[in-house]
Amino acid sequence: MAAKAGAAASFIFMLFLLNIACQAQLSPAFYDSSCPNALSAIRTAIRSAIAGDRRMAASLIRLHFHDCFVQGCDASILLDETSSIQSEKTALGNLNSARGYNVIEKAKTEVEKICPGVVSCADIIAVAARDASSYVGGPSYAVKLGRRDSTTASRTLANAELPAFFESLESLISRFQKKGLTARDMVALSGSHTLGQAQCFTFRERIYNDSNIDAGFASTRRRRCPRVGSDATLAPLDLVTPNSFDNNYFKNLMRNKGLLQSDQVLFNGGSTDSIVSEYSRNPARFKSDFGSAMIKMGDIGLLTGSAGQIRRTCSVVN
Ligand code: HEM
Ligand SMILES: *[C@@H]1O[C@H](CO)[C@@H](O)[C@H](O)[C@H]1NC(C)=O
């Protein structure tokens, strides 16, 4: 009798554990029955945004990164400032820099029209990043779904956890390690600097004071980025093909033509040189590793099950 009760109790306990495991697991099929057209609605919105502004592909990929590194992939980055919410939009790495908030909101509006209250803003950011990658020649990959949206945000955490352009390789590796990502994941993800633009103030020190920089490249960049002023003037992170997803970023690094200090540290005699060199020779390997690393990044700090909420509007808590 006691043995039977014990067996029943342990069976129930197993169900309980299984339930926890299921809730913590995302799945690409999460909306297949609750909102079968969600993914195509998002893709349409994202494609039209990028067709009108090619740089938006870069900005959407970066938005997913800056969401996931702060409280996890919970769309905390989309919340506006209120008396109870410290918006992350004004954190150091985001202010006058992160873009694409309105593109995500537009996609959310379209999805709300077909299935109100079902699809999270956090999932829309993750899908948007994938759609952006595939639209400009990067990999496509199955995005796992089922994230829920936060009811909080933290500018303090955003300031503390987003990596900065002047950090050492060791410091960058340790930041990614704390999020469950390896140095190899970090190099692959940094390969998204094959797209997009950076402001003069982020690479000024590098083009005037670094010695590990190609002289011709530095002098070209100095023309539009003086020692003083023009802080917000843009330059492409990949000088060769800033609008298409390819492996030129890694080839640039091997010629000391990385724009940011945090780019060039990936190929500067340290432990990641061999990865950069591998990706410069093998674009297919770069793309498949990038897709896997994006999926891994999308698993950081999730809210699932009944945690958090499905926001109706991405910029405000319900
Ligand atoms: C390794 C640490 C990283 C540092 C220090 C870093 C730093 C930066 C900086 C300073 C900019 C320019 C921002 C501006 O001037 O307004 C930038 C742009 C960008 N970053 Fe990173 N980044 C890192 C990793 C990543 C990762 C992991 C991703 C994506 C998975 C990413 C995607 C992008 C993209 C696509 C842009 C261009 C955005 C646009 O044009 O709107 N970065 N990054
Ligand atoms: C470069 O180094 C010099 C000497 O240390 C310093 O005065 C200057 O502010 C640094 N930065 C730039 C952009 O010139």
Tell me what the structure shows:
Ca(2+) 1 binds at residues 67, 70, 72, 74, 76, 88. Substrate binds at residue 163. Heme b binds at residue 193. The protein has helices spanning 2-24, 38-52, 56-68, 101-114, 121-135, 155-161, 169-178, 183-190, 200-209, 215-223, 248-254, 261-264, 273-281, 283-297; strands spanning 197-199, 234-236. It has 318 residues and is mostly helical. It has two domains: 26-162, Peroxidase, domain 1 (Orthogonal Bundle); 169-294, Peroxidase, domain 2 (Orthogonal Bundle), CATH 1.10.420.10. Strands 1-2 form a two-stranded antiparallel sheet. The chain is globular and about 55 Å long. Mean pLDDT is 94; it is low at 11-23. The structure holds protoporphyrin IX containing FE (HEM) and 2-acetamido-2-deoxy-beta-D-glucopyranose. Protoporphyrin IX containing FE binds next to α3, α8 and β1.
List the helices and strands and how they pair.
Layout: H1 2-24, H2 38-52, H3 56-68, H4 101-114, H5 121-135, H6 155-161, H7 169-178, H8 183-190, E1 197-199, H9 200-209, H10 215-223, E2 234-236, H11 248-254, H12 261-264, H13 273-281, H14 283-297
Antiparallel strand pairs: 1-2
The chain binds protoporphyrin IX containing FE and 2-acetamido-2-deoxy-beta-D-glucopyranose.
Residues 55, 58-59, 61-62, 65, 97, 99, 163-165, 172, 186, 189-190, 192-193, 195-199, 202, 237, 260, 262 line the site of protoporphyrin IX containing FE (HEM).
